[in-house]
């Protein structure tokens, strides 16, 4: 009787597999699936018989009792997770967790993770989140979550373990390159609310700095508004460092501001109907604006599409470090009302035809992070430093103006919040390099204008 019951369930499972991987391709062929030579019906039957035999053996001889439903779930999960790092079987619990992630608020750490060389790797900590405040960095490998090893743990399982109620704590054990031993971080979860775009002027320079933290639904409009508000500028620094990606249409929309014609990105998979090309809309309000893009190992997915498109169209210089290399497309396909599969169905390709997946974007100029080297040739003081020093000394003597000084200090802090200061530049050599490149760009682009400027300066002296 037990054998008869098992055979029935195995038949159901075989039909489910056939529905997904046999009947589905037949259905999709009508819409243009590119297929290789298909195995014959005899080969399929032999393959299914092998699967049935293994399931039967596991149920009969495995040391612990395990029911057929659990065996089937594990078989499906094993099949999908062995395809690539992003495909997965979403059980009822995982499916609900995914729905909660897209429909409601939840507590988290503020990091995006991915699989790199088989290791659970932090793509990027988001700005002003528990993860960033705790000191997690792009490229960190998560070895343990609450003392549980992440080896053979799927991305979805890891994310579900790290997500939880706000104000609850979690411990991560991290491997970081060039550290003597693993690092332990105890982090308190919080509601993650990140501003996707912010813009700053640059002290003493005619350039605008725009940082895009992630590609939510407002990115294109926010960047467009920031550029319009800035007025006439001579260049843009677009900071995509530690940007884990987001919505594809926003990556295309942002690229459209700077690229006038041609392909921005294409996606190609097995189903011809899903092979899409996203082309420039021809408007490109800032088609001639000099641009430098900052990228690093935390630049992934949508942000790689933008930086790669600008690079291929010769619209920007890319500086920093190699990006992450996440260029595949996943879709969620329901199996029934309580479960689904997340399946990689396509890859993204840049205008030149190159793929992002597992390769990433190579910067035009490699610049590692760090501070700008300073001269150590002796005591130096600049006019601005001297002025600030004298103002501080006068303020010490004038107690009656303390409140005025406090208000001025508040104004200065507010201005600094909206500006990349000289101090910020000196602490970020990648930004400093970007500014120098924009200066060079303008000199090469307008040599006559720059010569006149230099002559006027000499005449004034």
Verbal overview:
- The chain is of the alpha/beta class.
- It is 41% helix and 22% strand.
- It has 14 helices and 20 strands.
- The strands form five sheets. It has a seven-stranded mixed β-sheet with strand order 19-16-15-12-11-10-20, with helices on both faces. Strands 1, 13, 14, 17 and 18 form a five-stranded antiparallel β-sheet that branches. A four-stranded antiparallel β-sheet has the order 6-5-7-8.
- Helix 7 runs parallel beside helix 8 (248-256) and helix 8 runs parallel beside helix 9 (302-312).
- It is globular and about 85 Å long.
- It starts with a helix and ends with a helix.
Sum up the structure in keywords:
461 residues, alpha/beta, seven-stranded mixed sheet, five-stranded antiparallel sheet, 22% strand, disordered N terminus, disordered C terminus
> Between the first and last Cα atoms, what is the distance in angstroms?
103 Å
Uncertain parts = 1-31, 451-461
Give, in spatial order, the strands making up the sheet with the most strands.
19-16-15-12-11-10-20
Oligomeric description of these chains = single chain
Average of per-residue pLDDT values:
82
Please estimate the helix content. 40-55%
Strand content: 15-25%
Please state the CA-atom Rg, rounded to the nearest Å: 28 Å
Helix count equals: 14
Shape: globular
Largest sheet, described in full?
Answer: 7 strands, mixed
The total of beta strands comes to: 20
Instruction: Give the structural class.
Output: alpha/beta
